[in-house]
């Protein structure tokens, strides 16, 4: 064959290239030939696009599968098994697969008209009393309608735009109805009727009556919970979540036996059924998750919504920021579903309302009060008599920018990791624009005795910007973006940014009102952050020193990598401001630091790790006051960081020892620690 392509070593293959070329000569340009056994869809499926969820390859329909009969009689345990596997379909959709690969592969979804009790003949034959038709027409039908309603309610939340279609979730319904026409009250009524039938049925053994009731009540509670989330009735969350947890516990305790080989239950799920639906792309049949993982994910969803019900009652945006940051630094298993992340973002800001009750001015109030203990009204009241600028005072612009940046930052904690990193990069320019605006305002204000309030606000804005830069650098480690040659620069740059961040913190703490210096929440929080950031800086310096000798590329190659990795710092728009950006990387300074650190006889990486451990363990006794109910989680994170520092105390004790020290002992694994390595024999 041409183009260097070689046939696989298999006698069953025959080269048909020449035949295709010959027959295609009789075809008009743009024409296609279809065959009932090989369609355009099959041909397109053979192309690989690099997305494991969709790369199916050429996979023709399996005609040997027995036909599906929706009215086939089922045993109660078979109905329980089908309901449980339907939960697997739902959870698989929530984890990022398409509806057609998951929920729509559940064939009873498409057979609802056939199992409607009003359409079933009263003379329908039942083989025996252990398989009453009501198990399908009443119980299973109610569960399917509840499943579709949950998917419909989740779809309405997801489609708001807080998470991204085809990136975080899949919205394509393939023209399949999802109980949109049924009001929630109607679905709840159908589930109630099914519960009543199960409770009163004498044809189902008590064991399976209880098991079916638990599954129906669990589905009913989820419908109510998802409906309450969409309408933002957060006050309804806790009793519903408690009921769902109890039901889930019962369901887990009574798993149905696997269907026998002759059972019709497995036929209710056809992984190839997406091939007959209207779909824009070829879809790969998937393996549904194991049932234990399904229940774990559902339990994580309930935990997340409970957290939201607690957090929505806290008006302080700093607490939201702390909780979101903890979520990024220490991800909890089964708590990152797109549906949950969208729900949090909707609660933070939607339709001009913050936290479902406050106007946008609340963000500015929090920004000033939580950092500087200055009411916003007091902040703006001092300007009219002091303003001496040629133009009007840009208070509206300042207020709008603070609101957008603060709300945007908090919402970004519930983005997916790459999207969050991109948002941080884009927001840096807006933080600098705000900093430059405040600098210009300060130049046109009449001087006052003492520290100017604008000076204090500038420090807070700069602190936020430096914090964002640190988040960008750290996210590179968490996403495993840095090559071996890039790690030394990342740790060096992080240490420099943290040094500037600590300077801002010192300036802010110093000018807090004297009567609040001891007991104020900002002071306690900022002191905690100063200890934590100092530990982070010490560890960054230690790892910069240790990893310097791993750089194997030329300075020119490293410089090109530097410009590519930190391109956000070299936007030409920064040239439009008279105020230079603070905290941007400098490659020349990095090269100088590399030479200096290698010659520093006094520097000890091991002592830096020991210092970081002491600071972190000290921080666990005074973990700040802005974490609120999540203080234990913050202390847990600090304790884990301290353990990593304890492990890294085995770093070289001096730069001379580094010459013979094996850097290969260090292992970077974001699943163990998001930013720093552990020793190879770490437990």
Percentage of residues in strands: under 5%
Number of helices: 22
Largest sheet: 2 strands, antiparallel
Global morphology: globular
Rg to the nearest angstrom? 31 Å
Arithmetic mean of pLDDT: 90
| C-alpha end-to-end distance | 54 Å
Number of strands: 4
Structural class: mainly alpha
Query: Which parts are unreliable, with pLDDT below 50 for 5 consecutive residues or more?
Result: 1-8
What order do the SSEs take from the amino end to the carboxyl end, as H and E?
HHHHHHHHHHEEHHHHHHHHHHHHEE
- Report helical residue fraction: 40-55%
Strand order of the largest sheet: 1-2
Write the layout of secondary structure elements.
Blueprint: H1 17-24, H2 40-45, H3 76-94, H4 134-158, H5 184-200, H6 206-230, H7 237-253, H8 291-311, H9 317-329, H10 338-348, E1 349-350, E2 353-354, H11 361-372, H12 376-381, H13 395-412, H14 417-443, H15 453-478, H16 487-510, H17 521-547, H18 555-565, H19 587-599, H20 605-619, H21 631-647, H22 655-658, E3 666-667, E4 678-679
Antiparallel strand pairs: 1-2, 3-4
